[in-house]
Write a structure and sequence with these properties.
The chain is mainly α. It has 2 domains: about 60 residues; about 70 residues, no CATH class. It is about 70% helix and about 0% strand. The longest helix has about 45 residues.
């Protein structure tokens, strides 16, 4: 070994490269396990909500405007109101703007509850992509664009 800490054949730098690659692999594996755990937690919460709603009588469901066939979709959509609030905030649509358009918040929320692209919405909100890219996936795109123009 030389005084620089390297073997003459440079194996210290090779070892460092292997350790670095191993560190990256461990990081990727950790992230995958973390995502899987979060997905399982989300699924369990959705399933618990679905089971609770299934316990309600048909009359009780009818009183809140829900059909039994809608329960699974409602359970999957439990984060829709939070995503809508974040979307409105990111697009600069505040309560004052919504107040000028009666029933708009309810229409937006109903579309969010039925939305099939919530995962993409969440990724968009989390990544901070350019504001206009919501137009590609959001079922509320035309309403949100109209609200933004009325600012």
């Amino acid at each position: 070994m030389t005084h620089s800490g390297k073997d003459e054949d440079g194996s210290s730098s090779t070892m460092w490269g292997m350790q670095h690659a191993l560190g990256q692999l461990i990081g990727v594996a950790y992230e995958a396990v973390h995502r899987a755990g979060a997905a399982i937690g989300t699924w369990r919460a959705q399933r618990a909500l679905e089971l609770e709603l299934q316990k309600l009588r048909d009359q009780d469901l009818s009183d809140i405007g829900v059909g039994r066939c809608q329960i699974a979709a409602i359970a999957r959509a439990r984060h829709a109101p939070q995503l809508l609030r974040r979307m409105l905030a990111k697009l600069g649509i505040n309560d004052e703007i919504l107040a000028r358009h009666p029933d708009m918040r309810d229409r937006l929320l109903q579309a969010c509850l039925r939305c099939e692209t919530r995962a993409e919405c969440k990724r968009w909100l989390d990544r901070g992509q350019p504001d206009e890219s919501y137009r590609v996936f959001c079922p509320n795109e035309s309403s949100l664009t109209m609200l933004r123009k009325s600012c």
